[in-house]
C-alpha cells in the first residue's frame, strides 16, 4: 500500500510590535512538535537576554548586504531602518525533510514568502492586540525600548495592522492561553490540508 506523506508548511506569524508574537511563537515551538523556527538574520543590535543564533543571527550591515546580494536570503526587508531577512538554506532543508517551519516576519516578509516558489505551502496568521491602548501598555511593560522608540513602534504598528487583510487567519491575543490554543489548532488544521498531501492519488488507486 502506498504511503501518504505531506510537504512541510511555512507557518508565518506577523503582528505589530508588542502584540505578543514572540511570546506566542515560543509557546507554539514548545507545544507543537515537528515545528522548527526559522532564525532570521538582522542588523539590529542584540537586546539583553537575546542569544546569537537562537533569537537572531546578529550580523553587520556589510554581512547582511553580502547575504542579500548572494541570494542567501529567502526574503528580506527593512524595519525601523534595520534590516531583517530569512536565511534560505535551512528552510529548504527542513521543508525537504517534511518539517514545518515557523516564521516571525513582518508584512513585507509574509508577502514575499507568499509570492515565492514556496508560496503554495504558506499559511499566514496575523496576531492583533485587543486594542491600541493595550498594545501601548504591553510595549511599555516590556520595558525593552526607550520612550521615543515606543512612540515609533506605535506609529509603525498602525502600518502593520493595515496589512492584516492579507493574512489567512487573524488571532486577537487577549488571553494568552486561548491564543496559544488557537494557534495550535490552526497548525493542526493546516497539517491536514489535502493540497499538502503527497502520495494521496497512489494511495487511493491502491484501494480500488
Ligand atoms: N521581513 C522580515 N521581517 C522580520 C524578520 N525577522 C523579524 N522580522 C520582523 O521585524 C520586526 C521587528 O522585530 P524585532 O526587532 O525583533 O522587534 P519586535 O517588534 O520586538 O519583535 C517584527 O515585525 C518582526 O516580525 C525577517 O527575517 N524578515
Ligand atoms: N495575551 C497577553 N496578555 C498580556 N500580556 C501579554 C500577552 N501576550 C504577550 N504579552 C506581553 O506583552 C509584551 C510584548 O510581547 P512580545 O511577545 O514581546 O511581543 P512582540 O514579539 O509581538 O513584539 C511582553 O511583555 C509579553 O509578556
Automatic annotation (TrEMBL):
Signal peptide: none annotated. Its EC number is 2.7.4.8. It comes from Rubrimonas cliftonensis. Keywords: ATP-binding, Cytoplasm, Kinase, Nucleotide-binding, Transferase. It holds the Pfam family Guanylate_kin. It catalyses: GMP + ATP = GDP + ADP. The gene is gmk. Residues 8-188 form the Guanylate kinase-like domain. It is found in: Cytoplasm. The keyword Kinase applies. Belongs to the guanylate kinase family. Essential for recycling GMP and indirectly, cGMP. It is an enzyme of class 2 (transferase). ATP binds at residues 15-22. GO terms for molecular function: ATP binding; GMP kinase activity. GO terms for cellular component: cytosol. InterPro entries: GK/Ca_channel_bsu, Guanylate_kin-like_dom, Guanylate_kinase, Guanylate_kinase_CS, P-loop_NTPase. This is Guanylate kinase.
